[in-house]
Specification:
Helix content is 50%, strand content 12%. The protein is built from seven helices and five strands; from the N terminus they run αααααβαββββα. Helix 4 packs across helix 5.
């Protein structure tokens, strides 16, 4: 009886401990355990991972894949399919330009081009100093106020290229 308790104790220590000693992996383990390690809980687990780590690093994706007994390719595929997940650290500030049809037709492409030029980065990138990430969305569902840009989580309507550049001026040094 005593050996069974010892065996199960070492088993649980193996699955919940991460070689790095990072406690965020423990929180991730709890989320997977709460979902009973079901493979259909992948998106929920990835959300928790991104919340804990800020973005989905390769070792986090490997940890999730092993925990849910899924191929890494499937976990990576889900993480790259949904635009809410990020595989790179994001900047202190974020600027999301909607490039859906209505926004694009009304000048979203010009807004993006002006921001890329001013910041010296391309869509999907973060400035070298980590101050700002420039992102795109296929549609944010604000077609009536096109072109729409989301600055640090706040939607701005009918944004011109000049207005967008003015808005981020203080974010980049």
């Amino acid at each position: 009886m005593e050996t069974i308790a010892t065996t199960s104790k070492s088993k649980s220590a193996k699955t919940s401990d991460h070689p790095s000693g990072d406690k965020r992996f423990k929180a991730l383990e709890i989320t997977m355990k709460r979902a009973q390690f079901r493979q259909d809980a992948l998106i929920e687990v990835l959300h928790k991972a991104q919340e804990a780590f800020g973005y989905l690093e390769e070792d986090v994706l490997i940890y999730v894949a092993r925990g849910l007994k899924l191929p890494l390719s499937q976990v990576f595929g889900v993480a790259t399919f949904y635009h809410l997940f990020s595989l790179k650290p994001s900047g202190a500030h974020s600027c999301v330009v909607c490039l859906g049809t209505a926004c694009y037709v009304k000048g979203g492409g010009e807004v993006m081009a002006a921001l890329e030029k001013q910041m010296g980065i391309h869509q999907g990138e973060t400035t070298a100093d980590g101050q700002m990430s420039l992102l795109t969305a296929r549609c944010i569902g604000a077609c009536g106020i096109a072109p729409a840009v989301v600055f640090d989580g706040k939607v701005a309507s009918q944004v011109t290229a000049e207005a967008a550049c003015d808005r981020i001026k203080d974010w980049i040094k």
